[in-house]
Amino acid sequence: QEFRFLTAKERDEFKKNPSRYAPRLMGCDPVVLAESDLAIRGSTKFGAYLDGSLYLFETAESRTRFRKDPARYARLQHALK
How far is the C-alpha of 5 from the C-alpha of 12, rounded, in Å? Predict the structure, then answer.
């Protein structure tokens, strides 16, 4: 993943605690990953926060499915290559 920052201060803040700012599952859509085992990158256009963690989704429909049962998808642990 590549992260870009407007200022060095923002970059340094990110480096202190990247898990606070980086999307979960390397930015892959957790619904698609759970249901099809495909690592499809989500978009900030369809992002959502759950318990302070950012999740990205490929579509609005995927985000809606996540919101209906967030525990199912938030618990997902997957080895991504």
Answer: 9
Phi and psi angles of residue 67, each rounded to the nearest 5 degrees, phi first: -65, -30
Give CA–CA dist 59/41, Å, rounded.
Answer: 10
**Cα–Cα distances in Å, from 80 out to 10, 26, 33, 69?**
27, 8, 10, 22
For the whole model, what pTM was predicted? 0.81
User: Band of the pLDDT at 44, cuts 50, 70, 90?
Assistant: very high
- Tell me what the mean pLDDT of segment 56-72 comes to: 96
Q: At 29, list the tokens.
A: 């859509």
| Secondary element (H or E) of residue 70 | helix 70-74
